[in-house]
Specification:
- Keywords: ATP-binding, Cell membrane, Ion transport, Iron, Iron transport, Membrane, Nucleotide-binding, Transport.
- By secondary structure, the chain is of the alpha+beta class.
- It folds into 2 domains: about 1-235, P-loop containing nucleotide triphosphate hydrolases (Rossmann fold, 3-Layer(aba) Sandwich); about 235-325, OB fold (Dihydrolipoamide Acetyltransferase, E2P).
- The chain has 9 helices and 18 strands.
- The protein has helices at about 40-50, 95-100, 110-120, 135-150, 165-185, 195-200, 220-225, 230-235, 240-245, and strands spanning about 1-10, 15-25, 30-35, 55-60, 65-70, 80-85, 155-160, 185-190, 205-210, 210-215, 235-240, 255-260, 265, 275-285, 290-295, 300-305, 315-320, 325.
- It has a 6-stranded mixed beta sheet with strand order 6-7-8-3-9-10, sandwiched between helices. It has a 5-stranded antiparallel beta sheet with strand order 13-17-14-15-16, with no helix packed on it.
- A hairpin with a 4-residue loop joins strand 15 and strand 16.
- Helix 4 packs parallel to helix 5.
- The chain is globular and about 75 Å long.
- The model has no long low-confidence stretch (mean pLDDT about 90).
- The structure holds adenosine-5'-triphosphate.
- Adenosine-5'-triphosphate (ATP) binds near residues 18, 39, 40, 42 and 43.
């Protein structure tokens, strides 16, 4: 459906690359998330796909049609891509239905199509309201309906949930995922929040310094991250340095790098590798307690535990099956 080959983009004539030699393919009807730390190239990638930037090298095909190469650049409005942005971008002076009709004014059956997409997002009864008469979540559903109305080949959602509070966010992301799946459109959404990506994406693409470092199903990314960077995007991760390996008496392969996820750290429990430690500071986080710990060999660690009553002296450990190994 979307095929990208050797895509590169620099903004300073090749001195530094915002995107470097990125290649991947996306299948029809799936939802993909692009994840990466700030500056990793997420926006650049979607701007290139959308036709808002031209690449230095590489090609982009949508539905087997070349839309971008060094020689060819199909205009953004001719790529048949729908957009949903963080800030809804609805026209404040137009009612909901009019907001949707605006983008499909040339369509023969536009009234019928507007009705369909308003039903799809469950807002038919509010069609005569103005955007300011809706909640943030409802406005985002209108934005989605408007983007879906022209039947786009591809839907791009750029940080669509970041304006919403945590409760609404979780609710809306499930709702939006359901609507997208029901509509059958292929969707790419960009997010900082790996929880959003894990919750709704069939596959996740991870960018680091402009490079695509892993493309995988959510469960695989979590259990088999390709690097410490990928692992740490999906939760607190402690790198098992030589000093920590010696504290836990767990010598690991020297040509690899190792880490353990915070949730696999056990406090006062039996484990394959255990050491004694002193708790220097406890911070109550609501669902758990953050501990600053000094191991008996002098190493410091910060971990979060579900335990609420922690003595000053503890044992801390982990099991060998939970050690993540990377060739780095
Ligand atoms: N118009 C531009 N001119 C010069 N450099 C740019 C431009 N746009 C992006 N960059 C640089 O390209 C790199 C990738 O930026 P990009 O905006 O694609 O990252 P991002 O992953 O979307 O970041 P964020 O999550 O903060 O939005 C960064 O180093 C950025 O400074």
């Amino acid at each position: 459906m979307l095929k990208i080959e050797s895509l590169s983009k620099s903004y300073d004539k090749g001195k530094s690359f915002a995107l470097r030699d990125v290649s991947f393919q996306l299948g029809e009807g799936d939802v993909f998330a692009i994840v990466g730390e700030s500056g990793s190239g997420k926006t650049t990638l979607i701007r290139l796909i959308a036709g808002l930037e031209t690449p230095d090298t590489g090609t982009i095909e949508i539905n087997e049609k070349l839309v971008s190469s060094i020689k060819k650049n199909v205009a953004a409005e001719k790529r048949n891509i729908g957009f949903v942005f963080q800030e809804y971008a609805l026209f404040p002076h137009l009612k909901l239905e009019e907001n949707i009709l605006y983008g499909i004014s040339k369509l023969k059956n536009k009234k019928q199509r507007a009705k369909e997409v308003l039903e799809l997002v469950g807002l038919s009864e509010m069609k005569d309201r103005y955007p300011h008469q809706l909640s943030g979540g409802q406005q985002q559903r209108v934005a989605l309906a408007r983007a879906l109305a022209p039947n786009p080949s591809l839907l791009i959602l750029d940080e669509p949930f970041s304006n919403l509070d945590a409760m609404l966010r979780a609710q809306l992301r499930n709702e939006i995922f359901r609507i997208i799946k029901q509509s059958g459109v292929t969707a790419i959404f960009v997010t900082h929040d790996t929880q959003d990506a894990l919750a709704v994406a069939d596959e996740i693409l991870i960018l680091q310094n402009g490079k695509l470092v892993q493309k995988d199903a959510a469960a695989n990314l979590y259990t088999k991250p390709s690097s410490v960077y990928v692992a740490s995007l999906f939760g607190n991760t402690i790198q098992l340095s030589k000093e920590l390996q010696s504290a836990f008496e767990c010598p690991l392969k020297t040509d690899c790098c190792h880490a353990i996820r915070n949730e696999n750290i056990a406090i006062n429990d039996e484990c394959d590798y255990v050491t004694n430690a002193t708790v220097l500071k406890k911070t109550f986080l609501g669902s758990g307690t953050q501990l600053l710990i000094k191991l008996d060999n002098g190493e410091h660690l910060t971990v979060v535990t579900k335990h609420t009553h922690i003595d000053e002296r503890i044992t801390i450990g982990f099991n060998s099956k939970d050690v993540l190994e990377f060739k780095e």
